[in-house]
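Supplementary Note 3. Input sequence used for the single-chain structure prediction.
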Amino acid sequence: MARGCVVFSVLGTNLDAGVGKKRWDRWRPTVGLCQQEDLLVTRLELLHGREHTALAETIASDIAHVSPETVVRRVPFEPKDAWDFEEVFGALHDIASSYSWKTDREDYLVHITTGTHVCQICLFLLTEARYLPAKLLQTSPPRRSARNPTVGTHNVIDLDLSRYDRILSRFKEDQRKGQSILKSGIATKNAAFNTMIARVEEISVASRAPILLLGPTGSGKSQLAKRIYALKKARRKLAGPFVEVNCATIRGDGAMSALFGHSKGAFTGAVSDREGLLRRADGGVLFLDEVGELGDDEQAMLLRAVEERAFYPVGSDREVKSDFELVAGTNKDLERSAARGEFRADLLARMNLWTFRLPALRERPEDIEPNLDYELDAAGREIGKVITMSREARARYLVFATSPEAIWPGNFRDLGASVTRMSTLAPGGRVTVPLVDEELVRLRLLFAAFEDNAPETIAEDHVSAVLGKAKANALDRFDRVQLEETLRICRRSASLSEAGRLLFAASRALKTNINDADRLRKYLARFELTFAAVKSTPGEVI
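The predicted structure, written as discrete structure tokens, is reproduced below.
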């Protein structure tokens, strides 16, 4: 059985008009589309308002004359204002939602030659979003030399961009450039980090909703927030400034004033009005680093500002508007803080729509080398000369930097400081083996001191990240603690064998037949895990 061809067309109150026999002397798009030799329209859904009923009846009659195979169905379409985008979109959306689509038996086309420009745009958007499971149909008037001056021509446009290699390649190139902006041009190799960055690029372009960045101190939350702003600005998503504030530095009475501003005389010392950081971020991005340090009052005010884009400065009864986009960062487990009543659950829910966890540097050993090059360039710009490393010096530094011994407690801050020290002391701008050896002694002392005096912090929940919260919560506490340490070692190790050597270092010394990798592989299999799956788990929660 042949498939039917159904065309949706808005009645053209001007282009389709005509009375008497002379109407057959002019091109009328809706009639003309049913006269195409290579396009058999089995059904025409003709959208029109009641005031154009007579014209619609004429068009239906004329189509029956030129194309008896075509069934014309008249569909009520009556937006209050044909030039009001919201009205027109809503009316067309209602038609699309209530229509009985039979895509298994019929092909659908949307005629975009007639109707107002607003109507044509709305039809395009509904088709592109697949509310109308159709292709677009554009008709054009005939040339002067045409044999039939009333038929014209037609062109079918498929909005499935995957069919257009050049267009798709441009989108992919834009995405690549966006991801490069987010990574400062660093050619990172860690699969989990690159997956996270790809998702951040999508969200940054498509959404204005808050973004929450999790991760240990020095993992790059502040830098990523700045790059998100740079990407949004490059894509013309915003025009305002980037405003950054470390919430840990504005505790106490001054926090409300710093964030929300104050009016003159609001308190002792308020000798003039103060704008406040939220208002300064109007039209741009507000980055609240260490957002978990905000007090209860500031959290309540921030929630309203995020939801309503409005707030009251301290001491003022006049509401202030600020249309900012929020990016927040923290090294705290805000879910635990909310459960303990230390952070507002409603504010967390509002910020927790798009949440990404930045892995620690030691979890990305394959990315240390490209970041080393980045830091060398940065140090050179700061010092004012080109900094290079000898091949032997570079190899020696990377062996240590990517080993389990290098815990990098300050993450990229530690790496940047290390490179800066070597670059400053480099004779003629070249880092040599003796300089690297000197720096490695310093780093070993730093890392040892940190491990001896490390403050108690909330551990990263690798178990939930890999297994999912439901499976993680179903484990006995003993199994969960053991698995957490195993996953931590796996994430920071380059291979299964290296992770096995670290986990079974004591017992392996007593064995003559050593197979740590197989032992670890079997342990992970108990939880339906593989080493590759653990290493590739994205550092994000959505």
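The first strand starts at residue 4 and ends at 10. The chain has 23 helices and 16 strands.
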